[in-house]
Write a structure and sequence with these properties.
Number of helices: 9
Strand order of the largest sheet: 3-2-1-4-5-6-7
Shape: globular
Distance between the termini: 84 Å
Order of helices and strands: HEHEEHEHEHHEHHEH
Number of strands: 7
Low-confidence stretches: none
Structural class: alpha/beta
């Protein structure tokens, strides 16, 4: 009997040790994040930031023409190809962020816009089929850019009807950057698909991103053309700033710190169980005089942007 009690006690100890080991492994398991446009401006910033704490296994998907070395794994594949190898990367993902676009600037042509739509459709449908629980879309403020000179409208809320495109008053700048209608149409199409696909299995969070420039991203380097100089359409005219255009773009600035805070929160907020969850919010810094409502952003993410372009004047 005594021997049996000893064996029984030993079995309990061994079982507890095994369970504890399994629990530790589960706690150490890194969540899997897949980012399209994995070598682009926004993905590069977020991937480097998230990689610092080690909570995420980060995998970027990037077109072969834009591959760069990154501190996380990058898979070479074109999401325009519905049967591409990128599909296998999504398997088992805890979250997916869709940054990819054929031309990520307002001077996108309608052909580029159509291909950007295909990017989004392919990625969303595949991620939905693979039951990815959380999908985040980097949309754009240009979906509501038509409110730019409608000063009677007041704060621009995510629930306001879309007004795709941003018409610049300076015709020289307009020639260089385009009116953003085609670019915004692709973003709006992605938003509506996200709304249609959201269900109890897959939740969608859409952030209408302001202007977050590559590298240091200071508001003092924002120009009234709305596109960095190296990506502007070439013209024979010189840029002549128009105050209305310049103010609009500076007030939609999104600092690096606020960008990282907002997207990190979008990845971590609890999702309601067994519910169709779709959220649409603005993602700009807290710029003085800006007409973008951030109330919905703070309520959803429990984060209020802190940077202000006016402090850099």
């Amino acid at each position: 009997m005594k021997r049996q009690r000893i064996l029984f006690a030993g079995t309990i100890v061994a079982t507890v040790a095994i369970v504890a080991s399994v629990m530790r492994k589960r706690r150490r398991r890194r969540k899997k994040l897949v980012m399209t446009g994995g070598c682009g401006n926004l993905a590069s910033k977020l991937g480097a930031h998230l990689g610092e704490n080690g909570d995420w296994e980060i995998i970027g998907i990037e077109h072969p023409d834009f591959i760069k070395e990154r501190p996380y794994r990058v898979v070479v594949s074109d999401v325009l190809d519905k049967k591409g190898s990128w599909r296998h990367v999504i398997k088992g993902a805890d979250a997916l962020i869709h940054f990819s676009a054929v031309n990520p600037y307002p001077n996108a042509t309608w052909q580029e816009s159509a291909e950007s739509m295909s990017h989004t459709f392919n990625v969303f449908l595949e991620a939905k089929a693979q039951r990815v629980p959380r999908i985040i879309l980097a949309s754009s403020n240009h979906v509501c850019g038509g409110y730019k000179d409608d000063f009677e409208h007041g704060l621009i809320k995510p629930s306001d009807p879309p007004r795709c495109g941003t018409l610049l008053l300076d015709k020289n700048n307009l020639a260089k950057s385009g009116d953003a209608v085609a670019y915004a149409a692709a973003k709006l199409a992605g938003e509506r698909l996200a709304l249609a696909l959201s269900d109890s299995i897959t939740s969608f969070i859409v952030l209408r991103v302001g202007w977050c420039q590559p590298f240091e991203n200071l508001p003092t380097t924002i120009c009234a053309a709305g596109v960095p100089e190296i990506f502007q359409t070439k013209t024979d005219t010189n840029v002549v700033n128009t105050a209305s255009d310049d103010t609009w773009f500076k007030q939609m600035w999104l600092s690096n710190a606020d960008f990282l805070a907002l997207f990190s929160a979008a990845l971590s907020i609890p999702l309601p169980p067994n519910d169709n969850f779709f959220a649409l919010i603005n993602a700009m810094s807290r710029n003085s005089g800006a007409r973008w409502s951030l109330t919905e952003t703070a309520e959803l993410l429990n984060v209020m942007p802190q940077s202000d372009a006016a402090t850099y004047a």
